[in-house]
Amino acid sequence: METLEEEIKIQHFTEWLQANKVELRGCKIKYCGPNKGFGLFSSSQNSASPILLVVPLDLSITPMSVLQDPSLGLKCRAMFEQGEVDDRFLMILFLTVERLRKNSLWKPYIDMLPVTFGNPLWFNEDEILELKGTTLYKATQMQKKKLEGLCEEKVKDLVMEILDGEAERANSIFWTRALNIPFPHSYVFPKTSEEENCSVPLDAEGGIITSEVSPPSVDENGSHGCELASGVGANAVNSAQGESVWVEGLIPGIDFCNHVIKSTTTWEVDSLGLTTGVPASMYLLSAEQGTIRNEEEICISYGDKGNEELLYLYGFVIDDNPDDYLMVHYPVEAIQSVPFADSKAQLLEVQKGEMRCLLPRNLLERGFFSDSSPQNEDSVQRGHDRMCSFSWSGQRKIPSYLNKLVFPEEFLTSLRTIAMNEEELLKVSSLLEELVGNEEEKQPSDTEVKAAIWEVCGDSGALQLLVDLLQTK
């Protein structure tokens, strides 16, 4: 039940949204409790329309909007262009400053954001120790160290008087609320005065992009179409004016949607306003509007994520999560301590070996061996790929468990290489020298290296190393 303080926050935020031309067409904001904070709920208003909420893209918090900020823009641009901070940190810094800035224009929105989080950055020492042995433990330690370093080395002098103790909160706000948004190309890379005379046709779809399209990675550098967005972590799908550039950002209102595994609500971007009547906007769309009851919470899916990833990013886990997985990981840095590390590292590079594997929950229902031979196309292909590794002289038989073991061949290849002793390494070298012969410039292929290692070592050392990794985990 909402307290008076929460009711006042919701009222101020709703008025702020309306003042910024946000349209609450079929939803309202309510308090969900201390663990979930605020959320979106359906309302009887305009219940016939599948469009629940429309937010102008001008209200989004993105790297471009931070670089345009009157007080932070110039200083952030200098750090960004010199490579001292990335586009994500620009938004984290912006959230930090706006929360502590007096009379911030973003205050009604900032006041609605959580002050504590359930992700491991906020764990106490005893809780952190319970993560030991997982990849999440190391990731949390690295994230803490990175945040401390960024605050101390990059931005402390910039906002020293207001940053103390706030970086972790702003970081958590960003990671729990940011979306990867397909902005209209013209929105991120506006035309210059010279380009105004040149007409570029729009795409046939009117520039409307749905959230179900798989975006490119936001870690790659974007196009250098204008000075403002130059270098920002955005990817142009095409250079045409009517198409899209993926940019990470926060959308006030839509970012109050909580997670559900199977959702009938999605968000979409309407470049021209053909769907919503609001050009350059993002909106929530219900695929089953007629079945939504009044006062029912409106949720979206954050993606098919396992519990480790959900806890790291968002601070919660799901009981019996169908998307959960087991990660088995051999630390790259640990290779330096194994015998003949340099030789093994070269062999791993040639084989393109994987140092970790993700095993989905449904794959592990019968343990580490599947219940039957592969039937689908992907499984058949995996079996074919493994067959290629057992074709040297035929002296070592193809293993009977070839089509049943759930661990990927690329991962077992790495473990075979790492587990080799001196005698096995010499035998592998001898086989490869025999293959190359007197042709000094010829190099064995990855398949040939895999086959030689299998011929000499089999799976004994790899499976023992695998047992050690699982026991450690």
Care to describe what's here?
The chain has a 5-stranded antiparallel β-sheet, with no helix packed on it. It is built from 17 helices and 14 strands. α12 runs antiparallel to α14, α14 (409-419) packs across α17 and α15 packs across α16 (446-457). It is 37% helix and 13% strand. The radius of gyration is 27 Å and the shape is elongated. It has 3 domains: 1-60 and 251-297, Beta-clip-like (Beta Complex); 63-181, set domain protein methyltransferase, domain 1; 326-375 and 386-471, no CATH class. The two termini are 41 Å apart. The chain has 473 residues and is an alpha+beta fold.
Structural class: alpha+beta
Strand ordering within the main sheet: 1-4-11-10-6
Largest sheet: 5 strands, antiparallel
Say how many strands there are. Answer: 14
Measured by DSSP, the beta-strand proportion falls in 5-15%
Range of helix content? 25-40%
